[in-house]
Design a protein that fits this description.
This protein is of the alpha/beta class. Helix content is 42%, strand content 13%. The protein folds into 3 domains: 3-122, 3-Layer(aba) Sandwich (Rossmann fold); 141-304, Rossmann fold; 308-381, Helicase, Ruva Protein, domain 3 (Orthogonal Bundle), CATH 1.10.8.60. It has helices spanning 11-20, 53-61, 80-87, 101-122, 141-154, 170-179, 201-206, 223-226, 242-254, 280-285, 291-297, 313-329, 337-345, 351-365, 378-381, 395-409, 414-421, 425-434; strands at 3-7, 27-31, 43-46, 69-74, 92-95, 132-133, 136-137, 160-163, 188-192, 231-235, 256-257, 266-267, 271-276, 300-303, 334-335, 369-370. Helix 9 crosses helix 11 (291-297) and helix 17 packs across helix 18 (425-434). The protein is elongated, with a radius of gyration of 31 Å.
């Protein structure tokens, strides 16, 4: 039963309040003043006869100051110390109470809330039920299929091409392949090709000698050498300039390369894993990826499933992330049921990364129960999969439905929709042209939406 601490030296008031509050679901304890710290409580009713500065200081240092809810009762005379208590988080201040029914109703509301919180604390999210393979998490059928593919390919030296939307775990999958391979004790080097300056990509990949070009004041060892006998992940490979892709192709074919500014031929034994959030066939057709490089990289292509195709994994991943946040902070927070329902209906264009960030943000904002109010604004204006998408729906129809519903949810802001879908604005326009949703002559740079 929740505990109520009544602090007053007025015995007549104490007797009256005890009678008035007897119908509330509280275990009530009464003490005379703020110096008595021996009793824990969920709610404190403080009725000083005339608060002074010392009372305010005792309130500030009281053990229940930050852990309990407080209600003030007074005779109604202006009192700056009571006003300062209100500014420090006191919930209610009742003045000259003759009818105690409002206080009784408020106390009963607190009692019901405390009982619900205590019940939910007993079922706090402290464990995870997800299966794990390497660094990957998930118990859905598509994830178990992924585990089998990775287990098989990790025992070979075949180049792997990972394909999947932003945030679905391509780097995690690459790390799992490395960790499960015989190269696990060798280095793993991860390179985001989209973050490399176009004029320095060759130097970053293959290294350069001192004085090879302006600014080359020291010798630099490139990523292929840094990888040694380990693994090199080339993330966002479709963002690499085509001219460099041809040089990369020669390295993959022969295993030989030269540092910029050197004539010495060096050999690389690193295993290459490439990754992209584009569909390879579309990237080749659009001129983002050389077809011959793709076939050289894709000895073993693996498609990573987006979160919306992973059945109940979205709910279990949310609970997993919450359990780890609770463990790290010593908290016992839980999800409200409507939050989990919202998670299951949302399309998660940012996939696992978006879900993890969402849970961590909500954990910071929430008190004991994570509610819809603690979530980002996606609950009312973000893409939710159309109910028409189900077994038997073609990939093209599902893609069209997702794109159009995302665009509608974003109020036809094409820049925002493209970001949520994990594609470029140009690609979005091309798709909309195919669907007959816009005129083909419309230019991508001519409007912000």
């Amino acid at each position: 039963m929740p505990k109520l601490l009544l602090i007053t030296s007025d015995e007549m008031l104490a007797t009256k309040l005890s009678k008035e509050l007897s119908t509330c679901s509280f275990s009530l304890i009464q003490v005379a003043d703020l110096t008595d710290h021996n009793y824990p409580a969920d709610l404190v009713i403080y009725a000083p006869q005339q608060a002074v500065e010392d009372d305010y200081k005792l309130f500030e240092t009281h053990p229940l100051h930050n852990t309990a809810d407080w209600i003030l009762l007074s005779d109604g005379a202006p009192n700056k110390w009571l006003d300062m208590m209100m500014s420090k988080g006191v919930a209610y201040h009742f003045r000259q109470m003759r009818d105690f029914s409002p206080l009784r109703e408020i106390a009963q509301e607190f009692a019901e809330e405390f009982k619900q919180l205590k019940q939910k604390r007993h079922s706090a999210t402290l464990t995870s039920s997800l299966d794990q393979y390497g660094s990957l998490l998930g118990s859905s059928a598509v994830m178990h299929k992924l585990y089998r593919l990775i287990r098989r390919v990790s025992q070979t030296d075949a180049n792997v091409f990972l394909i999947g939307e932003s945030g679905c775990g391509k780097e995690v999958a690459a790390r799992t392949i490395h960790e499960q391979s015989e190269r696990a004790n060798e280095p793993m080097v991860c390179v985001n090709c989209a973050a490399l300056a176009a004029d320095l990509v060759e130097s970053e990949l293959f290294g350069h000698e001192k004085g090879a070009f302006t600014g080359a004041v020291n010798q630099h060892i490139g990523f292929f050498e840094q990888g040694g006998n380990g693994t090199l992940l080339l993330d966002e490979i479709t963002e690499m300039p085509l001219a460099l892709q041809s040089k990369l192709l020669r390295v993959l074919e022969s295993g030989e390369f030269r540092r910029v500014g050197s004539d010495i031929v060096r050999r690389s034994k690193v295993r290459v894993i490439a990754a992209t959030n584009r569909e390879p066939e579309e990237a080749i057709e659009a001129g983002f990826l050389r077809e011959d490089l793709y076939f050289r990289l894709a000895h073993f292509p693996i498609k990573l499933p987006p979160l919306r195709q992973r059945d109940n994994d979205v709910i279990e991943l949310a609970k997993h992330f919450l359990a780890y946040r609770n463990e790290a902070t010593g908290a016992g927070k839980v999800f409200a049921d409507d939050v989990l329902d919202m998670f299951s209906r949302y399309s998660w264009p940012g996939n696992v990364r978006e879900l993890k960030h969402c849970v961590e943000r909500a954990h910071i904002l929430a008190e004991e129960v994570i509610t819809v109010a603690d979530l980002p604004d996606f609950g009312t204006n973000s893409p939710v999969l159309e109910s028409s998408i189900g077994p038997g729906t073609s990939i093209k129809d599902a893609e069209k439905s997702l794109i159009l519903s995302t665009l509608e949810a974003c109020q036809h802001n094409k820049t925002q929709a493209a970001k949520q879908l994990g594609i470029t604005v140009k690609t979005l326009y091309n798709k909309l042209e195919q669907y007959g949703e816009i005129e083909p002559t419309l230019q991508t740079g001519s409007e912000a939406t």
